[in-house]
């Protein structure tokens, strides 16, 4: 993944932010919407694109576009920086390969310990029972 290439491929749109804020909200476009086309990106390899499509299938449109938005700050520039950081983290997180699980066997000592504790528990429970009277 080439971060610089990906950042150059991003499309931004500034929109008026919703919610409370009075006159400032009504006249400034501080909310930033980021669009990134995964399928046409030159910063990703074919295998990375495929992995992202599988792992982010709920967040990618049918055209292969990821859309993120941010309206946390009153500043458009700050919101733009935040949304870029979110995209980079999202991509890195979903491009990471899962570690292969190595099968392990319990040690002899742990097996013996388990069996000993089972015997102790069984003995404890059998001692609670009333004695059997043979007639």
Short description:
One of its GO terms (molecular function) is ribosome binding. With 135 residues, the protein is α+β, with helices and mostly antiparallel strands. The protein has helices at 3-8, 23-27, 46-55, 76-95, 108-128; strands spanning 11-15, 31-37, 65-70.
Helix content: 40-55%
Shape estimate: elongated
Q: CATH architecture of the domain at 3-95, please?
A: 2-Layer Sandwich
CATH class of the domain at 3-95: Alpha Beta
Major β-sheet, in short? Answer: 3 strands, antiparallel
CATH topology of the domain at 3-95: Double Stranded RNA Binding Domain
Poorly predicted regions: none
- Termini distance? 83 Å
Number of strands: 3
Compute the CA-based radius of gyration. 29 Å
Helix and strand composition category: alpha+beta
* β-sheet strand percentage: 5-15%
